Amino acid sequence: MKRYVYINDDNLAQDLYCDNRISNRKYTIWNFLPKNLWEQFSRFMNQYFLLIACLQLWSLITPVNPASTWGPLIFIFAVSAIKEAWDDYNRYLSDKKANEKEVWIVRQGIRKLIQAQDVRVGNIVWLRENDEVPCDLVLLGTADPQGICYVETAALDGETDLKTRVIPSACMGIDIELLHKIKGVIECPGPDKDIRRLDANMRLFPPFLDNDMFPLTIKNTLLQSCYLRNTEWACGVAVYTGNETKLGMCRGVPEPKLTAVDAMIDKLTGAIFVFQIVVVIVLGIAGNVWKDTEARKLWYVRYPKQGPWYELLIIPLRFELLCSIMIPISIKVSLDLVKGLYAKFIDWDDHMVDLETKTRSNAANTAISEDLGQVEYILTDKTGTLTENKMIFKRCCISGRFYGNENGDALTDTELLNAVSSGSADVIRFLKVMAICNTVIPVRSKSGAISYKAQSQDEEALVRAAARLHMVLANKNGNILEINLNASLLQYEVLDILEFTSERKRMSVVVKDCQSGKIFLLSKGADEAILPHSHAGQEIRTYAETVEQYAQLGLRTLCLAWRELDDDEYQEWALMFKDANSTLIDREWRVAEACQRLEHDLEILGVAAIEDRLQDGVPETIATLRKAGINFWMLTGDKQNTAIQIALSCNFVSPEPKGQLLMVDGKTEDEVCRSLERVLLTMRITNTEPKDVAFVVDGWALEIALKHYRKAFTELAILSRTAICCRVTPSQKAQLVELLKTCDYRTLAIGDGGNDVRMIQQADIGVGISGREGLQAARAADYSIGKFRFLKRLILVHGRYSYNRTAFLSQYSFYKSLLICFIQIFFSFISGVSGTSLFNSVSLMAYNVFYTSVPVLVSVLDKDLSERTVMQHPQILFYCQAGRLLNPSTFAGWFGRSLFHAIVVFAITIHSYALEKSEMEEVSMVALSGCIWLQAFVVALETNSFTVLQHLAIWGNLVGFYAINWIVSAIPSSGMYTIMFRLCKQPLYWITMILIVAAGMGPVLALKYFRYTYRSSKINILQQAERLGGPILSLGNIESQTRTLEKDLSPLSISLPKNRNSSVYEPLLTESPNSTRRSLGAGAPFDFFQSQSRLSTNYSRNCKDN
């Protein structure tokens, strides 16, 4: 929807659009309570607990005081609400600070100082140097005579280099006094979040101009939150305000990501709910039968002979309330709390600080840390992610002559330096294109030294190299460029800029030589975007071979070209270009078409080669993570050979003969089909060999494969551990991530630039590198790190620990709830199956909230292995990837443990106290004490590394249990008056506790000892080595278990059924040894993997096992 902005006309703009008040708040004072409650009750578990709490208000069916459920429910809801309120209050303070900033505007020809929130669309805003831009403005004037100003956009896109903005041509030459009175209208699209694009038009009213239309682009705007730099003043008209600015439209809460652990917990919760319903139905029927057959015969029960119509529902509903604690009410709050701590551990990790930039790692998403430990595929960008993105001009080929091949540095090549000093025409033209065809800003210091501000590292490298070769970009004054060549001054007027896009893959400028008056088109770009547009008759084979040669060396290449334009040709084209820039519909396409009309018949001048070095530690990081069973895909826009060389140098793939690269190429559907078929056939054969196989595909073939042969390409993705995807666009990167996710793999995408944002947001885990391309990727990511090498620690240490701890905490939460519930069920068998509760309301309420929560929360400090051991033996990450510690089998073990411990507690308690004519409260307290003692020892047994804090939490919690109950026992109205005092004086009570602990923990300890001694896992071996202080030279192989995927034998028609059968869990152990794992593709040449032969009629994906 279009909007019309009337410049400097308050009446027309007053009520059409929103004001400039920024609001990131989620709530208001009035809607906080209902909105927050609505959000909390939108979750199934909270609805379930609310239903249970409401049923407990029915006195006829509730077995306990309703406070036993309402208390924990209100407490947990209050904690969540307070957290939300605190976060929202901080957002309110941030908004208030921004809204109350003072801003100069023009009203009725007079400058006034107002608050930023009072700026309206159409107001003229006046900025001074270093002011923050309060809303989206279209520039009208600047202090610079040429209409240029400089802005810092770090707050918007993270890029620290200054960018130039220019006033529209319609406003050129307007006096500063007349700017207060300017009138006109701007036609622009509705608000959007594209910070790199604006398609609008401007008309100024007489006497300024006679209603002529002028195009506006993003170059004519100042966006909200940018800062005016190196410019005395600038003014502009507000076109988007408040939350309708481009930055405001980018704000918002991202879609929550569901981790594999959360998905498994949801499934287990559903299974427990079904089990609970079955138990309720069975006990309800049994209770009604006993009531009708036995209870009515007992005079003291006093059942009426005739009950209400709903009498049959009373006992089942009582058991429903009694069994409701099977699903722990505190599990969500506990998990949210510990996940927040996991994120803080990443923020606080001093081993993940980039010392060069002082950048710390940051966890923006606090909910998915455990997914880091289950990553199976890493999809990575190349430039700036694997490399430093510090471009250095190394070699060049000019008119068929090579420079820099001898010493590896063209800047010190004597032959090139002599050619420059002698004024070689070919070399001079080549250097002029390097110096002029760019968006670099030269900045002269007070001492006279020139530095360069560039948005592209490639452009900066070319301009610096040209300067060292005496072609110095000295000044940009509006559209006039000043070039110093061997002490002589050259001036060029920039007429038009044909900007670089990922589709065109080239940039051009049209310049006019101020001395000769000749007009030239200067172009630079990728070889496939420049060489095909050369003029007829020019031999380009040499340049194509040069590009391949440089790519073999891992260098980035750019082809440079130019041609002279006739005045008539340029004038005709300029009108077309202006019309294309003026349209609001399909402007980008029409501009690209206009550019195509000019960029032809080029004279190829040569090829520039730029080196981008690998970051420190990249090969070691990739090698380590590959040992951990993680597959790597490189997604880059670079040339194929350049990407392959980088892949070889950073251990992506092994060189021949150990490794093998398979090419998927083609320009047509048939060519891609044959290529895919050939590569798939080779891949199936080589799957039986210990060979490192990778496939290489370019963007064109990838587009065809994803569109027409998606199933075949999916099979290829599954079979290959490594892929190198070249010349891919940002959208193709996101498609590849989505492809792997549909195969049910956990994906991690890592990049450093704005073109990686879609890929990062699409992946299960997004990691951004705070690099030289800005912070766009880091801001869009779940985690940001300073260097690629920190990824190893992020996954192996933080990811693995987070998964292990979450797996234990979630299953323990179910265990303690099931334990108390099973005791209640057993008690019903000796209480007439009536649904009577053994425990009183206070005990039940305190059980989940106080007695059992503190010890398990300190499990966030537990480490089964030291960080050093984990980093030395990355293969053990397999236990996390395979879901060894949290799956239906492991849960069955915890379920069995809770049932066994409930039998022990109930049997010993009843036999010790039921025959002693004890009070019901005494039996209840003895059973509760047994549960608390058992759980203290369970937590102690499952803890691998004790700290003082963990000892205090486990044993201090036990002391706290007695302290709380002594206090409650001293209150006459508590219903437990003197109970704990009497029990603690009885030797029988302490003997009972010892029996419960011995009977409950004895078999668990025996089974654990047997497993640790005779069936030890690789982790157990490492734990033993750590305790003994000896090294582990080899852990041996993990025996592989194949998972077969039947496939159609017809070419390129592959079905991928999922088969995730897991063997039965061996109960009471810390991990399940038989959980299957999806494949790592071809047989991997690592100690931990063994490949098995495959039948010719199917292919298998290796599954590691213990």
From TrEMBL:
Pfam families: Cation_ATPase, E1-E2_ATPase, PhoLip_ATPase_C, PhoLip_ATPase_N
GO cellular component, one term: plasma membrane
Domain P-type ATPase A, residue spans: 100-162
Protein name, UniProt field: Phospholipid-transporting ATPase
Segments crossing the lipid bilayer: 44-61, 268-290, 818-838, 844-861, 891-911, 923-941, 948-968, 988-1010
Mode of membrane association: Multi-pass membrane protein
UniProt key word Transmembrane: yes
GO process annotations (BP): phospholipid translocation
Cofactor annotation: Mg(2+)
Keywords per UniProt: ATP-binding, Magnesium, Membrane, Metal-binding, Nucleotide-binding, Translocase, Transmembrane, Transmembrane helix
SUPFAM superfamilies reported in the protein's UniProt record: Calcium ATPase, transduction domain A, Calcium ATPase, transmembrane domain M, HAD-like, Metal cation-transporting ATPase, ATP-binding domain N
Main location: membrane
Catalytic residues, chain numbering: 381 (4-aspartylphosphate intermediate)
Domain P-type ATPase N-terminal: 5-70
Family membership: Belongs to the cation transport ATPase (P-type) (TC 3.A.3) family. Type IV subfamily.
Reactions listed under catalytic activity: ATP + H2O + phospholipidSide 1 = ADP + phosphate + phospholipidSide 2
Localization, UniProt: Endomembrane system; Membrane
Chain sites annotated for binding Mg(2+): 381, 383, 752, 756
Annotated ATP binding sites: 381-383, 459, 500, 524, 556, 636-638, 727, 733, 755-756
Presence of the UniProt keyword Ubl conjugation in the record: no
Domain P-type ATPase C-terminal, residue spans: 778-1015
GO molecular function per UniProt: ATP binding; ATP hydrolysis activity; ATPase-coupled intramembrane lipid transporter activity; magnesium ion binding
Classification via InterPro entries: ATPase_P-typ_cyto_dom_N (IPR023299), ATPase_P-typ_P_site (IPR018303), ATPase_P-typ_TM_dom_sf (IPR023298), ATPase_P-typ_transduc_dom_A_sf (IPR008250), ATPase_P-type_domA (IPR059000), HAD-like_sf (IPR036412), HAD_sf (IPR023214), P-type_ATPase_IV (IPR006539)
